[in-house]
Amino acid sequence: MSALLQISDPHFGTETPAAVAALLALSREIQPDRVILTGDITQRARAAQFCAAKAFCEQLPCPVIAIPGNHDIPLFNLLARVFWPYAGYRRAFGDELEPTWESPLWRVIGVNSTSPRRHKDGALSAKKIEATCHRLRSASSDAFQIVALHHPLHAVTEHDQVNRAYGYREALHAFADAGADIILGGHIHLPYVRPMYPLISTLSRQVWIVQAGTSVSNRVRDGKPNSVHVLRRMPGAVGVCDIEQWDYAADSRAFIRATVTRIERNHASSRCANQTL
I want to staple 186 with a disulfide (CB 3.0 to 4.6 A). Which of 8, 50, 79, 206 is the partner? Predict the structure, then answer.
């Protein structure tokens, strides 16, 4: 069994210590190949918050694939926002803002959807979309192709339509054409898993949107608990991936598996089997 753990929007500076401890315990139980951290790592891009986030990541049982979010760019320090927007992020997580990692079963392509010129909105330029597609097209045929970014490319509520990254329509079609299977996102603190075909019937193949909730922050939305996703591939299950949502239960101080969505890759006719546990 091979697993990936998606953590998003921890907003260090607003973290709940009990949820942090429970998430570390879950990571040690799962022993994922990689942790994918899809942005808003800090609340206000302050040095102490990046230090807390880095210390947390150093306790995880595997390397972290980190992508910045809009909260990881200084908001009030305008000089830093203009000239050194990612300085704090780079000190904590390195210079690479769009990391790529590949194994025989997974290919994870990080995409930086943030823009220092915008307050919170994300954007994907034509150049960035094409560069991402170039990376997608170079993958092996057996690997599940995952694009990981902070801002969503799809929204299930009217309220969240404005939170989609600029260029989301072009990105969805281009990523599907280039072979993406899963698009991981964060930003809106609302977890869900959705197939884009037949919702968007013009897609050339099926691609799944996996949106994460906030993992450990007290900035939960609509009373929903902290949550994370676990992506699993089982030996011999060619073209199949299970996506599990794990919710934090405050009474037991542990993350509990809440749903499992099984997806099949490569076909516009892929089926969804969603089971509440």
Answer: 8
